[in-house]
Amino acid sequence: VQAQVQSGGGSVQAGGSLRLACAGSRYNYRSSCMGWFRQSPGKEREGVAAVYTDSGMTYYADSVKGRFTIFQDAVQRTVYLQMTSLKPEDTAMYYCAVYQYCNGVAEPAESAYWGQGTQVTVSS
Q1: Among 84, 88, 99, 86, which Cα is nearest to 22's?
Q2: Measured CA distances, 24 to 40, 45, 122 (Å)
Q3: Which of 84, 66, 63, 91 is nearest to 16 (CA)?
Q4: 23 phi and psi angles, rounded to 5 deg
Q5: pLDDT (tens digit, 9 = 90+) per residue, 29-66?
Q6: What are the beta bridge partners of residue 98?
Q7: Which of 27, 51, 109, 124 is 20 to 30 A (C-alpha) from 75?
Q8: Three-state secondary-structure class, residue 88
Q9: What percentage of residues in the chain have a pLDDT greater than 70?
Q10: CA terminus-to-terminus distance, the chain
Q11: 3-class SS of residue 95
């Protein structure tokens, strides 16, 4: 059982870009859904983007479509979230997770392995 290891994040001004990375393991990367979620203070966690590792099918929340891109490096078993045109409302703690089935950007109904979280702060 391997938890996800996250990297990236930080602080940026509105309009800037950041990239997050989430490293899976050989035990849980193939035939899985890897998703990015975020939670800001006082709000519920929400799905941002997800990718099914076998097919490469991607899913995005409406709020990030056209600005965020999820992509994977299958050799490195790593999924990235490239965030551009960042807005202050994108400020949140971002978490990656790996689970069995993608259901759009919905939280997994089954058990999942979660990353430790990484803070993204966008200033106006």
Answers
A1: 99
A2: 24, 21, 27
A3: 84
A4: -95, 125
A5: 788 899 999 999 999 999 999 999 999 999 999 999 99
A6: 34, 113
A7: 109
A8: helix
A9: 98
A10: 40
A11: strand
